[in-house]
Amino acid sequence: MKPGDEPKPGDEPKLADEPKPGDEPKPGDELPTLTIPVTRTLIVAGAIASRDYQDVHHDPEAARQKGSPEIFMNILTTNGLVGRYLTDHFGPRCTLRKVAIRLGAPNYPGDTLVLSGTITEVADGTAVVRIVGANGLGHHVTGTVTVSLPEGTA
Known about the structure:
By secondary structure, this protein is α+β, with helices and mostly antiparallel strands. The protein has one domain: Thiol Ester Dehydrase, Chain A, CATH 3.10.129.10. Helices cover 21% and strands 32% of the residues. The protein has 3 helices and 5 strands; from the N terminus they run βαααββββ. It has helices spanning 40-49, 60-65, 75-90; strands at 30-37, 95-103, 112-123, 126-135, 138-148. It has a 5-stranded antiparallel β-sheet, with helices on one face. The chain is elongated and about 50 Å long. InterPro entries: HotDog_dom_sf (IPR029069), MaoC-like_dom (IPR002539).
């Protein structure tokens, strides 16, 4: 996909598998990756949905004038995608208790974000997951998320 291209049918993001009943997460477990095409529409819609009207998230010329080669994704959209990644894996009944993420390389239109995670701790019905989101420029997002697990999974 070239920068600015919109996805074609069949390019939809691939969802991570939800755990099977009785799966016991343990430290060292790796979550399946989630691949998300970064489109201009995703960037602009995420900024609007999070009420972030900064022009660098929707106006290519303004982004260039401020030193960026293109519009780029805001942190609130990234935060939402990290949350989606975990609820896709642990199921809709999990609760995100603590999200501690840091942005790195920008997400520009036409790139692909690949989210991965590794469970680092499991205790008292919660799991701590180390998150990495990479794109063609490097690590877009890194951090940890503490998740309350649904009954029967921890």
